[in-house]
Structures are given as structure tokens and as C-alpha cells.
Write a structure and sequence with these properties.
- This is Sugar ABC transporter permease.
- Belongs to the binding-protein-dependent transport system permease family.
- Keywords: Cell membrane, Membrane, Transmembrane, Transmembrane helix, Transport.
- One of its GO terms (cellular component) is plasma membrane.
- There is one protein chain.
- By secondary structure, this protein is mostly helical.
- It has a domain of about 180 residues: MetI-like (MetI-like fold, Orthogonal Bundle).
- Helices cover about 75% and strands about 0% of the residues.
- The chain contains 13 helices and no strands.
- Helix 10 packs antiparallel against helix 13 and helix 12 runs antiparallel to helix 13.
- The longest helix is centred in the first third of the chain and has 38 residues.
- The chain is flat, with a radius of gyration of 25 Å.
- The N and C termini lie far apart (about 50 Å).
Length: about 300
């Protein structure tokens, strides 16, 4: 009897604890996802009650229109910038994990851009990159490097590099803090034993620090890949995808398709395709990492 009562109470408690998170998951994830999938099969214009069924026509348009998929080339700038950002963040994390005077101040300075509002950062760098009165061109002039002066946001060959550098600057501190936390979890005894055995700094990093950080590096690379695929705020605020679409990303093109051209059906299909690409990339990344771990 008591066993039966205990099982019932356990079931009720589990149900009560799961009710709220499952409800929120359904309302804010599963239902919007299902609705997005449904809209991707229609020709809805965003405001009329008529949602004409078009089946997979929107997906055919995406895969047959080279202009839509070509913008992924612009996302690559953020991907490679994210890789470089992780390298620099790891370098600063290793340096600032040591007992240095003022290290907490340097940590704050590097982390500060991450907590700044993206819109504020975009407007700030709009003045930095201004072709006529920007501080960057003024600095180059004072350094005698006038030949390097250009329209950083108006030059189609430089605009994505300029925006990717801003993204690197903003998220550098976030990755650095993650790496510092991981470094502080490594027992100091390992480094002391390595020094006793005659290992130098590079050998300690290679055989102790690097293997201990692999899981964190996996997480950082996951965030880097997904972040590069979903870039929106900087190009949308600073360039509106210009010049002549040179800085458009897949997300900005999706937003333009929905709100500028009132083609919510095609935009929904683009959202589904992006979600599928992110899932595939994450799955492949996980498989490769797990394969490497099994190989060891």
C-alpha cells in the first residue's frame, strides 16, 4: 500500500515539475516551429487571410535561385573571423590566467564589449569606419599610411572583413572568459609535475592545457559555426546588406524577403532551410569530434 502511494506521489511530483517547462517548450519552440514549416508550404504575403498552398515550390525556388545561396559566401567571413577570435581568446586566457599585476582589469576591458548593446556597437563603428571623417582613416593618415584609406563599408571587397572584425572584437571577451574558467579547473599539480620532468611552456600547453580544453573548444566552435550562419545585427544596422548586396547574409536576406517583398512563405522556407543546415553542421561536427575521441 505504502509502495503504491509512494509511486503515485512520485508520479505527481514529476508531472508537476515537468508541466511548466514542457508547456513553455510547446508554446515557444514546437508550435512556432510547426507553424513555420506550415507557412513555408504556402504563398502567404504576411497580412491577408489567404494562405495559398504551394507545396514545395518555395524550396525549389531556394535551391534553384543562385542569389539566395550565394550570400552564404558572406557568412564565411564571420566563420573564419570566429576561428581567429578563438585563437586570440585562448591566447589571452592563458596569459591572464597567470599571476600578473592588473590581470582583473585587463579581463574586464576585454570582456566589456560583449555586454555592450549590439546596436550601440554598430553605431559606434559606423563613425570609426566613416569614409570622410572616420577615426580609422584619420589614424592611417597620421601614421603616414594614406594609401590604405578606403571606404570600409562602401568597398565590396572590404565590407565583410570590416564587419567580421567588429564581431571578433565583441565576442572575444566571452570566449576568453570561458577559456579562463576551463584553465582554472586544471590541477596545478600537473604543471608542477611537468616542470619537474623538464617540460617547457609549449610542452605543458600541448600535453596538459590543450587536451583539457578540448570539450570547451568544441563548445566554442559550435557557437562559432552557428553564430556565423545566423549573423544579422551588424550588417542589417550598418550597411543594410550593401553595397549592392555585398554584405547580405542569409538571415538579412530572409528578413528582406519577408518584410520588404512581403513573401512570408518563401522567407519561412528559408528559415527552415537554415535550421536544417545548422542541424547538419552540428551533427557532422559532433561526429568528427566523437570519432577523434574514440581514436584516442
Amino acid at each position: 500500500m505504502y509502495s503504491s502511494l509512494y509511486k503515485k506521489q512520485k508520479t505527481v511530483i514529476l508531472f508537476a515539475f515537468l508541466l511548466l517547462p514542457v508547456t513553455l517548450l510547446i508554446l515557444f519552440s514546437l508550435y512556432p516551429g510547426a507553424n513555420l514549416l506550415y507557412l513555408s508550404l504556402t504563398s502567404w504575403d504576411g497580412y491577408s487571410s489567404d494562405k495559398g498552398w504551394v507545396g514545395f515550390d518555395n524550396y525549389r525556388e531556394i535551391f534553384h535561385n543562385s542569389e539566395i545561396f550565394s550570400v552564404f559566401g558572406h557568412n564565411l567571413y564571420y566563420f573564419f573571423g570566429g576561428i581567429l577570435q578563438n585563437v586570440v581568446a585562448l591566447y589571452f586566457a592563458v596569459i591572464l590566467s597567470r599571476k600578473l599585476r592588473g590581470r582583473n582589469g585587463f579581463r574586464v576591458l576585454i570582456f566589456l564589449p560583449y555586454i555592450m548593446n549590439s546596436v550601440a556597437i554598430a553605431y559606434m563603428f559606423s563613425y570609426v569606419y566613416d569614409a570622410q571623417h572616420g577615426s580609422l582613416n584619420a589614424l592611417l593618415t597620421n601614421l603616414g599610411l594614406g594609401d590604405l584609406i578606403t571606404s570600409w563599408l562602401g568597398n565590396k571587397h572590404m565590407v565583410n572583413i570590416s564587419l567580421a572584425l567588429i564581431s571578433m572584437w565583441k565576442y572575444l571577451g566571452f570566449n576568453m572568459v570561458i577559456y579562463i574558467g576551463a584553465l582554472q579547473s586544471i590541477p596545478e599539480d600537473l604543471y608542477e609535475a611537468a616542470r619537474i620532468d623538464g617540460a617547457n611552456g609549449w610542452q605543458s600547453f600541448r600535453f596538459i592545457t590543450w587536451p583539457s580544453l578540448l570539450k570547451i573548444i568544441e563548445l566554442s566552435m559550435l557557437l562559432t559555426v552557428t553564430g556565423a550562419l545566423e549573423v544579422f545585427d551588424l550588417p542589417f544596422i550598418m550597411t543594410k546588406g550593401g553595397p549592392a548586396g555585398a554584405s547580405e547574409t542569409f538571415v538579412t536576406k530572409t528578413v528582406d524577403t519577408a518584410f520588404h517583398y512581403s513573401n512570408y512563405g518563401l522567407a519561412s522556407a528559408m528559415g527552415v532551410v537554415l535550421l536544417a543546415i545548422v542541424i547538419v553542421v552540428i551533427t557532422v561536427q559532433r561526429k568528427l569530434i566523437l570519432r577523434e575521441e574514440k581514436g584516442r
